[in-house]
Amino acid sequence: MAVSIVQESSSISRCGYDVFLSFRGVDTRKNFTDHLYMTLVNVGIHTFRDDDEIERGEKIRDEIERAIYESKISIIIFSKNYASSTWCLNELVKIMEHRKFSKHIVLPIFYDVNPSQVKEQTGSFAEAFARHEESFKSEMDVVQRWRAALREVAVLGGMFLEDRYEWQFIQDIIKQVQNKLHHPTLYVPPCVVGIDSLVTCINSWLGDGSNKVGIATICGIGGIGKTTIAKVVYNLNIQRFERYSFLADVREVTQERNGLVRLQRQLISDILKGKVNKIHNSDDGITKIKEAICRRRVLLVLDDVDDSEKITELIGAQIPFHPGSKIIITSRHQCLLSDPFIIQMFDLEASSSYGDLCKVFEVKELAFNESFQLFNWYAFGQNDPIDNYMKYARSVVKHCGGLPLALQILGSSLSGKSINVWKSALEKLKAIPDSKIQKILRISYDSLQDDHDKNLFLDIACVFIGKDKDYTTTILDGCDYYTAIGIENLINRSLLVVNEKNKLMMHQMIRDMGRNIICQESPDLGKRSRLWHKDAFDALRAKIGTKTIKCLTIDLQRLLKDKYAKTATNYSKNPFLVSNEHFLPNLKILNLSHSHALLKILNLSGLYRLERLMLKDCIKLIEVDQSIGDIKTLTVLNLKGCKSLKKLPRTIGSLKSLGELILSGCSTLGDVPRDLQNLKSLRVLNLDGTAICESNSWLSWLSLKRSKELSFFWASLPCSLVKLSLESCRLSDDVMPTDLSYLPSLKSLNLSRNPIHSLPESIIRLTKLDELLLTCCKELQWLPKLPTSGLRVIMSQSLHKISSLPCLLNFKRCIVFGCDKLSEVEGVFKLEPIENFEGEHIKSLFNVDSIGSNKLQIYNYLTDTKMVATPQVFHDSGITSCFAFGSEVPILFEYRSEGSKISFSLSKNSSEKVSWLNLCIVYSLVSDEIFEFLPSVHLVNETKQLVWSYFSSFIGISETNSNTILWLIHWPVKDYQLDNGDLVSLSTSGFNVREFGVTCVSETKVMYEDDTPQYSQETEYIWRGIELKVNEELLKLGSSGNIKVQIYNELEESKMIASPKVLYDCGIISIFDTYDCGYNHAVGNKVSFVVARSSGQHISYLNLVVVLLAEDDKIFDFLSHIEIVNETKDSKWIHHKRFIGIPKARNNIYWFSLWRFMGELEDGDQVSCTVFSDLCVKGCTFDLKHEPYDNLLHKHPSDYQHLRDKTISSYWLFPFFLYHLFRSQRTLYRIQSLNKLE
Prior knowledge:
This protein has about 1250 residues and is α/β, with parallel strands linked by helices.
């Protein structure tokens, strides 16, 4: 996703218009005229449309008059209120005068009036002129000119809407205009939706103003609209090129006799404008094509190409394209243009860079609202369905899955039909796919290279949709498939996709096409090669299976709900599973989950190739046979929810390949074999909800271990463990080890819902740990210093953020929600009663004795809990604070101010360097929203433009909103850049502040020793800025709860430095409301600035943050783009990004991007950044970075490392991500807590 450079051609900007539209905006602007205008533009007809939003004045009047004179045709749309607009009538007079003295063509369109009303000025026209004659009594000559123009235009003849659908009427208008213009444009359907953003991208590529040859592929599944987009782009851009040619249906035509030569003849004719000598054969055609295209800048479109060899056969290799020529290919094959093909086609060296030469534009399915609009046009001839048809229209649109072809075919077939026909059609569609759609979709299947890929496609379509890719590969590899390369081929043919969760997904109509191929094999179920769900069960029940059946799958859970439930249950009543040496020797996966009647697993020794044994929710299973130890290939054993299982076989220690052992929910399991430590490959061990800490055998073993001064069973766990879960195991301090260094590889540790009071200090030795879950540990009081993630801490010179939250989340996830008694996390925060606190800097601020007995409610953001206690002192990221009841700032504070902001100048006495700030904030709570945002205090050095922000992890809660509370803060600022005489301001956010007080404390004023421990992370606050490796850090998180991370990192694609270029962008998508961020902030979608030169430096990087808001939960798939314009030099750069949000949620997005410039922005340039999106753009923020001019000389790959240090605007991206991650996890915790109560 590289940045596109758009520089409008001067020849285009100077040319006139093909069509001038005259219309009454209130009548037709947002419906008929808009549809007509878009259709005209899509077929390449250059059209002028006035915009009512432009302020009326002399400038726009002159522009419209000039547009009329420069247009070839004027289309006048007469509607009921046309004559009420003096503006429209004046336009009409100008048009008719221009017609008298030129060859200007006038085409009247009678939308909802007839010619006689216009000619005689009757009806609404008469009413309008009555008003005009009243208003223009002194200028009746003007009124008479209007009447004469109307009479003149009415007799010209025109076009009438009558009873036709609007889209049919528009299509007739287009034909008339094209005939009058003799315009060589291609036919485009009148109803085209959802393509604007992609067309804009391709137009930007075509109009980049460079002399480079380029080739692009427009790819996607059949019927997705590739050809339509190619036609629109072709129509819009032919004027940019000297010659142009559109070769349609290349795949189909080349299969016909002499089809290749016919295409060559058409191409040469288009390039030479009809001058074609006889072509003897395809080789002769290639020679003539090369001669024709080498002298001219051409636009060539090859439609529906299924094989790159067809391109070579058509136009040859080592093609001498004229500089600036562009080739567009539409294909179902994503990787049609391979590296060797490009090198051969353009005669490049193998080592040459051709990244900028090749582009791929993938066409995605339409969003639901776009699909709905397109379907309605074909079914009803308008944007909205007829009321009684709404439910059925939505069902059809949902069935089509955003495929334009299906929407068009089904919409047209149902147009004008009764509701009963619609109902019947819907029922038929569920059972039998539409034949026209299937015929087009099947082309992709038929084009697969061999039977291997075809059979793989059919297996996936029938069985493996929605399944994990690795899981599927394991199974199909065992069936003699070459699965990895096969899946890649299907993806390249747009038949299959792998989503962000590694699941195999397929468009439902592609799936139906594959399953329909199987259904056509035979009307007899037993003679089909693959059976699924109900058909599979019917075949088993009727005992009609044959050797033809290669694959069979049954959804037992679904069957239990349908009419076969009773029969299905009878099949699972056998309490034993017996295996012997002759039973399924090649079986790799055995899934018997939810077999509620299964009691025992007997002899398994014959399954010597088994890799996965799934026994989830076998609630009566009491025993697994000792023979399981013979399965040396077993990697996963899942016994989750086996409530009756009391012990595991001793031989489990022999499973050398076992990587996952899932025992969660085995509530009676009290004995885990001591040989567990022999499982050297074990990485995941889940013991949630087991009874391992309560059994007699366990306690006796524990006693034996302790007698030898060894700790718990942890010492016997394999050191290979990466994830260990012991949630709800009733672990107490007695059974917790003192040394956790036995598990050096551990990355995730879950100890939630256990009655532990603390963790051993040795946890800091688990240097790889990045997830610690302690949810609802109700007795937890203290945590030692936790290991960090190793993220490199850097200092930002312009913005510091101080908070416990990133310290606690420093290694991604330390979850302590519901830990009511937690009072200290070493190095992060600590709270203690004020009467136990020894530091004088808090006690000196008010009378401690007077408040000692007053209890106050405190909310802890980190634990999501509330406590009622006497005033507590909080040590939070090096800052000490306290909450107490009070209504005013104590008199001893040096500066006082009403409201949430206070400003003052620091003392100019050089001997009084400020070391601390004592703050007193009198506030009340406005609403419960305070619990959604961390309360904050912002310290700003206005003189040096530096900002420090403190986010508190605690807030005092008043009994009512009218009660006030004092928030007292002792803030060390000795190391801050606060110098004598600087202007300083403090402000707060998140609550209603009544009064603000500040005292500056310098070293000369300190009258006591302060030995209070400072609770900071080695004095380097994590939130001061963290350099992230985008691909290694954020991408690991992917999505969590109610947030998603969507990242594009250009540096990972190419180490070559181009300019300007978007080096990375990142979208943090959440369901939470956004809030203002940063400085240089602009409300709305545009921010402007003037470049100011820094001595010896130039602007090298522009950081941009965009805040996007969804107005409802209907849109979650949308495209946005950023335009940066150097208005001084008339240069424009565009960057697009497609966001896939959270379905059925109100998406809110922070979009971060970093732009690399190398001299394009100079001193004095006026620059603007504008954001366009389907969502509401709340605002955007920018930050400019400079670097020495010397760096402009280093434009080679060695600069790659130099750029990596600037890849992330650290003080923006990471804090926002952590905050949203925290809120997401808290929301998830609350939902789970509610579920447990239910």
